[in-house]
Amino acid sequence: MMMAMMVERCCCVRTHRFLALFLLPLGFALLASSRDVVGILDPVDFLALQAIRKGLEDMPGSDFFSDWDFTADPCAFPGVFCAGDRVMALALGDPRAGYPGLQGSLDPALGRLSALAELSLVPGRVTGPVPDELAGCPDLRFLALSKNLLSGPIPAGLGALPRLRTLDLSYNQLSGPLPASLTAAPTLSNLILCHNQLSGTLPPFPDAASLLRLDLKHNQLSGPVPSLPPSLQYLALSHNTLTGPVDTVLPRLTRLIFLDLSSNLLEGPIPGSVFEFPLAALQLQRNAFSGKVEPPQEDVVIPVVDLSYNRLWGAVPPQLAAVGRLYLNNNRFSGEVPSRLVQGLSNGMQLLYLQHNFLTGIEIGPAAAAIPVGASLCLQYNCMVPPFDTPCPLKAGTQKMRPVYQCPDWRG
Questions:
Q1: Minimal CA–CA distance to 190: which of 159, 162, 215, 213?
Q2: Distance of alpha carbon 216 from alpha carbon 337, whole angstroms
Q3: Residue range 37-94, pLDDT digits in tens
Q4: What CATH number is given for 290-412 in this structure?
């Protein structure tokens, strides 16, 4: 009996040791398997992603969130990019063209992703405010939430982000003033807030700002154009109600490659120095600019120059003969059209609109005997009978010439 008990005890010990040796690696395997399933993401980031997911949902036709299964590793979710155990970038929504976006709202938990460097949102129907809590992401460099239905003010705290380089909140319904903190953001290069409902005056930008692109078109901004940093290469302020002159603001912006101040209430002279800038387009139409147009150089080579619908007067400058598309219509230019300008249509100029001025004649040389096919010239409603019967835009009307009483210098 004693011998049987000893044998049984020995067998039990051996069995326990065997089970321990067997289960120990199995336990490690299960732990590793479990770790693979739930991931090693920082718990704060894990909970933040869950809150973000609860605030958003796919629009009909989108399946972006179908793979956001929190029993798996969140770093493998579509649009989630991690470094170590932290979320570094978040691209919300399917970026492929034609795919519907997301709806819902942005949860303040975004601010708890303290290592976040990039945040983007595809076009959709996301409503509500831009979370103030995003100011708690000190590493944020890129923030793009355009083409949604976001509303409310722009969080002033975004201007204090020390590494922010691009802020794109365009095509939303944001309102209120432009926070002064954004104009002094130390690293901001691209500020794109067009097509919103921003109002108030523009705060000045310090000369030391590193801003390259400023796009505030299609808002409700008013007041004068403030001082702007010389670093600017792209400036779009069109379709606001900005007032006052720009002849002290623009000459400093010698690096501009695009300038659009159209559809405002700006006045005063157009500084001649802007015609020397390396511009792809100069758009100053539909303002109240006045005075003579006097480019300082011999040939202006800007592809598109639109000075239409202003109060410009004097002679049409021949230096504009090398412009690709030239709009000088609906001003108060007088005198004869320079022959160089007409000849420009045979030398590469595609469009020359001079209608609705007070021009009294046109110098026609051999090169201008016929308008090249594909080129557009409109001369109607001036103080002369147009020497060419060329098609004009519908907005030019049907009258070929101004009434004689408006043309005291016309000799018939």
A1: 213
A2: 36
A3: 345 899 999 999 999 999 999 999 999 999 999 999 999 999 999 999 999 999 999 9
A4: 3.80.10
Cβ(237)–Cβ(258) under 8 Å?
A: no
Scanning the structure block, which residue is given the tokens 């920082």?
42
pLDDT at residue 145 in the model = 98
309-318: long-range contacts (C-beta < 8 A, 24 or more apart)? Answer: 309/285, 310/284, 310/285, 310/286, 312/270, 316/341, 316/354, 316/359, 317/293
Q: Is the pLDDT of residue 138 over 90?
A: yes
Specify the residue for token string 């480019």.
Answer: 295
Report, in this order, helix, strand and coil percent for the chain, each rounded to 5: 25, 25, 50
HSE, side-chain direction, 13 A CA sphere, residue 388: 21
| pLDDT for the residue numbered 92 | 97
Please write the tens of the pLDDT for every residue from 332-348.
Answer: 999 999 989 988 888 88
Question: Domain boundaries in the chain?
Answer: 290-412
Q: Is residue 321 a contact partner of residue 302, using CB atoms and an 8 Å limit? A: no
pLDDT for 39: 53
Q: Are strands 80-83 and 56-58 parallel, antiparallel or unpaired?
A: unpaired
